[in-house]
Amino acid sequence: MRPARREGPILRSRPRPVRLDRQPPGSARQSPSDDMLGLQRTAGNRAVSDLLGGRPVVQRHEGSEPEIAAAHVVSSAEETDLPAVADAPALVTEQDELLTERKPLAARVKAAARNAPDVAAADRVKQIDDRLVEIKQQLALRLKGDEAVTLEHNGYTGGTAAWFADVKTITFLGRPATVHKLLAERLAKVEKALKDLPVPPDGWVSETHSTLRKPGQSLHSFGLAIDLNPLTNPFLVQPTGQPIYEPTAWSGSIRDAIEHAALLVLARRADDEAFFTRPDVKDKDARVEASYDKIAEASDALKSYFTLTDADRRAELDTLVHAVKDKDPKHRSAEDWIKLIKADRQTVGSLAAPDRKNWSHPEHGFLNLDKRLVKAMTDSAGAGLTWLGDDTVSPGRDIMHFDMRGVGPITKIWNSVKGGRGGDTYLGGG
Q: Residue 419: what pLDDT?
């Protein structure tokens, strides 16, 4: 899951689109620039997210025990500055009000710069910015304190210091992963299940795992979640659900492209495809397999759809258009479909950019996890993890994400900051 990492204003600058003719999976993966990584190391992941307007960025991996403790355990020095749980909503409200006040003032300062400086407006903007920094620091500290509340509410009495002392960096499928020992034990079961199976040509994983995160970012913050191949297995958000993580226009455009591909390539209407609906299968293991098959088929359809404008596929395009003429509510011709495919390809490529979805190679679909790996991660008789490609308690299909919500000690997460109010967030089953 990429939770708590996607809130914030949309960038005003024009995003750099992702070209749909990049190297295919198996070649060198795209990664954030050295400048981005430098910013993350210097200022922390949240600061980089703020600089990008709250858009998703690859999470920092915290490895050493002192770093982990500093990020997650409220020190004695911090105790005096820790806002009370009851104070968090007021801080969030104040932050929102200051941001609202700041916008027209900043516009005045910018406009006045061409003539005489607006000293009063500039001074107020500085006051607001100074206070916003203070509020961010206080809310970040409150989120750290909320982790202790979460552990207590879930019956863990050892405290955050003891909990995070059990968070270590291990090797999983040949790559480092910073996780709690409870998750490490389950990942060991995954490796055991895969041990004697033929390894895929590109390996079981081809990217760095996204694991431990800062406070306030779901089970990732407790070392009980892991993202596999996060750049090529994106979080596809349900656009008609709760508006979180990204603007509805983004998720809506991606959903539309998937539905167009399903219609033309698979001859399925949007209601038939029901991409964001979990299969109605009671047995968890059978349902995960059904979800995988559903996502894989849609992913392959999108990949095929994007290439139907190629000259050597014209005859195939004509055949497909004829086959869906009674299902297509707009009765599009082959030329209409070519225009739509090109538009979808351009839109998805733009939304996949690093300062937006951070989704590499959308032209190759949105699933590149081996089915055997997904089954090993989720098998009820083995690791038993929850895959958010299947569990749609999360608002969409978070294809990269696996966690311990169904088998771990934490079933509710306390967050006194989110949404301007405190309360438990139910994680749901597996």
A: 53
